[in-house]
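As a next step, the fold was encoded as tokens, giving this record:
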Amino acid sequence: MKKATLVLVIALLAGLAGCGKKQSISDDIIVVDITKAPSSKKELILQDFMDVEYVALETKDDFLNRGVVHDIGKKIILVTNQDDGDIFVYDRTGNALRKINRRGQGGEEYISCFNITLDEENEEMFINDISLQKIHVYDLYGNFKRSFQHKKGNGTLFYNDIFNYDKNNLICYDQYNEKIPFVLISKKDGSITKEIKIPFKKKILLLQQTRDEEHIYIKTPGPYRRIITFKGNWILSETSSDTVYTLSPDYSLYPLLVRTPSIQTMNPEVFLILRFFSDRYYFMETIKNVFDFSTGKGFSRTFFMYDRQEKAFFNYTVYNGDYTIKKEIYMNWLRPVNHEIESWQALDANQLIESYNNGELKGKLKKIAATLNEDSNPVIMLIKHKK
């Protein structure tokens, strides 16, 4: 196994040398042997390696929500409840601006609101309606502007991930596409402007299914991103491939991480999932593609991280430094946002009030908790790279 890994790394390094360009993010390709669990553990304080900002979402009678953040710009934050079609528009400090709901059956309406991508520069938002395999475009007041279909062919169903790539394009991922799941599409009409080819032998999906005489039942381990923003670059993780790449602004692809053994040789498969990237630490996990429908159990996981400074893997626990107690942050719950804000997490108001009353908070979070009541909307924790 060590010999095979060495050959793979040498081949990748040779490919980089042939490109004549420096690799983005890291000069070293990280090799992850998913059959080996780290033997050492680190306890970390989030604020030691990331900046943290808290935004208390203003609460009004018609502005009650679960604080599901879809996108954040320099001026506004887009939030939903995920299931009722309401879109809550806040300013960057959490002041309520307006509520939008264009859910319906009409040509200018959406049936589902799987995710929302903000284009603050063009003052537009893109609603990913996976029920219709369609993207609806509205201005920031909810006025309909246009819509276009997801791409077709090669097993495509719908775009899972959509991010604002540049002024003219979105970057999208479709997990069911059997050949080219990553594409750039035009914001104007949805046409493909760039295909991003990640090599893999065959498509392998992280899900299990069973059926009876009438229905097919599908189970997945929950959401995870295949596109992660990281300080001007894009990390692309096609789980059918053994290599994770970074996409630079000039569309060049550079190997960042290689897994071993190959996903294509495993039965059952063990998938490598990326969760969170900082300058020093890369947080990830493995998920075994096994689920028992009779017991409702499966998709066993192993959580670990890579320390770029020590060039080693560790188990970990990360704590929120704005608590006086050891309050763990679950890194697999964090969701990527953009190049400025690495991730976010919603903090329940009732839990914050309880922690405040128990004397468990300090600093800026303590000040915010003192202003909350049991009907308050969640407080959004924004996790940003240190300047």
